[in-house]
Design brief:
This protein is mostly helical. It is built from six helices and two strands; from the N terminus they run H-H-H-E-H-H-E-H. It has a two-stranded parallel sheet. Helix 3 crosses helix 5. The radius of gyration is 20 Å and the shape is elongated. The N and C termini lie far apart (42 Å).
Length: 127
């Protein structure tokens, strides 16, 4: 079983939002997956895989990333992690004119998600 949680598990245990027996069963073996920004060497392979899957699904020619696009992808911080990379790659593929995607074809989001604390503060002050 693979699972994730929003929030700190120890805090959830203390507040009895998570059953302790479930926590200890799940904790028997853990997998740590680093964020994409720490695994930049994997980005070209992941992007190439996404391009191959998209080409297969749409029965179109498989596009490739040029060196400038790969460099830009590696330099971006990926706050949305792999989901954001997927969205960026598929959008670039969809809008690409030729067989290659360059930096001009990439769009990076400048929108950052609000933290849970910001959302809580906004709802606390609501009428």
């Amino acid at each position: 079983m693979i699972c994730t949680a929003n929030g700190t598990l120890m805090k959830m245990l203390a507040e009895e939002d998570l059953r302790d027996n479930l926590f200890y069963m799940l904790r028997q073996s853990g997998i740590t997956v680093p964020p994409l920004r720490e695994m930049t060497e994997d980005i070209p392979d992941i992007a190439d895989y996404l391009l191959a899957v998209y080409a297969h699904k749409t029965s179109q020619t498989r596009k490739r990333l040029d060196a400038s696009a790969i460099k830009a992808l590696k330099l971006y911080s990926w706050p949305g992690n792999i989901r954001e990379l997927k969205d960026s790659i598929l959008m670039a593929d969809f809008h690409a004119d030729g067989d290659a995607i360059s930096t001009d074809g990439l769009v990076f989001s400048d929108i950052q998600p609000e933290t849970a604390e910001c959302v809580r503060k906004d709802t606390d002050s609501a009428p």
